[in-house]
Amino acid sequence: MTVDLLDEHFPKTPIVVGHLQGARPGPTVVLNGHLDTVPISREPARVGGETRFVGQD
Fold first, then answer.
1. How far is CA 51 from CA 4, 14, 39, in A?
2. Residue 53 has what pLDDT?
3. CA 23 to CA 18: how far, in whole Å?
4. Under 8 Å between Cβ of 14 and 6
5. Are 16 and 4 in contact (CB under 8 A)?
6. Would the pLDDT of 2 be above 90?
7. Positive/negative CA dihedral, 22, 28, 29, 31
8. Which domain does 22 fall in, by range?
9. Which of 1, 17, 45, 48 falls between 20 and 30 A from 9, CA-CA?
10. Residue 1 near residue 20 (C-beta atoms within 8 A)
11. What is the tens place of the pLDDT at every residue in 3-57?
12. What is the tally of structural domains in the chain?
């Protein structure tokens, strides 16, 4: 497995890329994830003056 750290443009939030060569030919699988999420407000959304509850328990 090879791993590269790409931090040239964003040194505070580097990108990690791993590559694992398979033993047989076949389809390629790409796994992508990120940690740059923003917490969702617990307040209901307002769209055009109408209150909408989205993703609430």
1. 46, 39, 20
2. 64
3. 16
4. yes
5. yes
6. yes
7. positive
8. 1-57
9. 1
10. yes
11. 999 888 878 878 888 989 889 999 988 888 777 666 666 776 677 777 766 664 5
12. 1
